[in-house]
Amino acid sequence: ELQDLSYGKGDQIILDFGSHRVGYLSFHLAVDGVNVDAPTRLRLTFGEIPYDVTEVLHPCNTWISTSWLPDEIINVDWLPTDVDMPRRYSFRYLKIDIIDTSPKYKVKFQDIKVRAVSAISPEVALASQKISIADKELALIDHISQVTLRNCMQTVFEDGPRRDRRLWLGDLRLQALTNYCTFKDYSLVKRCLYMFATLPREDGSLPACLFEKPKLAPASDYIVDYDALFGPTVYDYTVASGDLQTAIELWPTILSSLKIPLSHVGKDGKFDSSASEAWKFLDWSDGLDTNAGMHGLVIFACKEVNKLALLISKPQPFLDIVEKMAVAAKSFYDESQGVFVSGPDNQISWTSQAWLSLAQAVDPQTCLRALKTAMSLPKAVKPLTPYAYHHVAEALARSGGEKECVKLIREYWGGMAKAGADTFWECFDEKDSRRSPYGDCHNNSYCHAWSCTPSYLLRVVLKDYLEKS
Length: 469
Description:
This protein is an alpha+beta fold. The protein is built from 16 helices and eleven strands. The protein has helices at residues 50-54, 136-152, 169-180, 186-198, 224-228, 230-241, 244-257, 259-263, 291-311, 319-329, 350-358, 364-376, 386-398, 402-418, 454-461, 463-468, and strands spanning 12-33, 40-47, 71-76, 81-84, 89-100, 105-116, 167-168, 209-211, 217-218, 333-334, 339-340. Helix 4 packs antiparallel against helix 6 and helix 9 runs antiparallel to helix 10 (319-329).
């Protein structure tokens, strides 16, 4: 009945499009009145979750730019007319505030449309990609994961289609892994890999992210762990696509991308985060000490590159450093507590256990015990983002804790689903729904690429376990 309803100054309408979409809005603005003797002024607010449109966005207490907030004020001079919004939006909900018309007329909203866009056709996005999971909760999580990935797959693998619409290197790896077992768009991954290889920094390292528009350019951001993960991302691509030539062409870039990460490894074979001021990310968790996690991540990256070398008939470049770091990794293990500890205060975090487990720093049984112990300790630093939760989940499964991995997927990603997520979020804290790395949840992204990995975990990592159970 929307097309027959009229709205005047001070009125408000909220529309629900039924599911999350990324695209361009258009509508016909009709008139109900005697004269259009003044412009129509509207505020349009696009929402990924309900409180984007049920709460006032301004002021926003955040340390990142508020120009990401998804609202627009438009003036329409001549009515009736078609209105085409030129910007691309990411939303399920649309709030329209009629700021003003005039006493002589009201407006009607008719023929409202969204032209959705993605690298993946909506006709094939999910229909041919379903897996036979009898468990309805896991099937829903898989579905939401795919929608999240599809909506982030544009001309590059975007971080988030609403906020931070750029390509981040660490996020690319997780998106690509999920893509290989769902949409299988190898060309988009290849394009992104070459874009990074085109933009090395002066020392041969790679920027943490890049901008595609208005022209291809590197961001000033540099993250040591993202740099190290370029090689593993190429390895995953090569295994999935069979494209050896790309790996051969990118080989010099791969070797350069590990120079700065390896420069943090001391004579004792241990990674030292204080060796430079460069950003070691791993997660947005408050107060996270990165020494142990980075040690595991660098071992993991070197091992993956060594495996890639065998595929393309190159000498394995990091055999010695892997052996040295593997020995040093044992010094992070606290026998009395049964966990890996990090830094001068012997911090226990889920992330430290995850990366040292993925690196196979010790035997799988010890890794699994360390993971389960840390996850049971109230004092342990928990992850905040799906990026870190993914590595915990995969580490559990790779260490023989498939049951625990499924439980974590249900609790964390299933928690978002229970909270009404159409697409998975940039961060999620089940105890604080308004938690934000940026100070204000209104500047969070609620369709975020690094959260799409349950599809990969369910389809690849847990495939045999789920089939047996």
